[in-house]
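Tutorial handout. Part one gives the primary structure; part two gives the three-dimensional structure as tokens.
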Amino acid sequence: LARLTLSYDFTFYATLEMALREEVPEFRRRSCGVNPLRRCRHCEENEALNRAADMAILSLWYKAADTIADGGFLGRCGGRLLRAMLRRQYRRVAEKTPTVDAVFAGEMGQSLVHSGFHGVLVGIEAAGDTTLDELCEPTAKMTAAMLSLLSEEPGERRVLERLGYLLGRYIYMADALDDWEKDKKHGDFNPFLQCEDEPEALKRHARASLLLTIGEMGAALDLLELRHFGPI
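Part two.
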């Protein structure tokens, strides 16, 4: 069941750490955990995968906390059940990575964590008069904290924190754009719906913001020595 919590976000997280390490990841053909009749290539257990699993536990723990705070009756029941199932693992991860847990706890005072790195700001959104930069900030800080764990070398760690910060911004904006039509239909908050611009002008503004963030992410990535998975 734990494998079903895997997301593209944490696949990227594990892949990035494996790309930075000298050890070559080992892959073997095994039966699929979900469909035993299908065989596929599995990455054998390693430190990068274990760290990604820890961060997934941390994200799920805080997602459950916000589901309890803001969900409906069934959502609150599900959130409490999930927290009960995760409690032992969460405590282990929080003890191992107290700095990242502290960042999550601090930012969760004003943010809602979706699966993976996603965040939608509740406290800041309620204030109404906010900028896109302010709305991206909690997700960006949480992602930066997670990527800072991938290296102990000070210079490389600073680059990873910068990459994580930009990645968090990208994820928040991309998530908001994915939900734009749905939020407009249901009257839910969306940062891109707060603009006075016409839809086409809004899309141009959003595209420019995303491309600028992607460009800066590329510049940060170029400063890292990727030993594996460079094309990916």
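Part three, for discussion. The mean pLDDT is 86. The longest helix spans residues 154-178.
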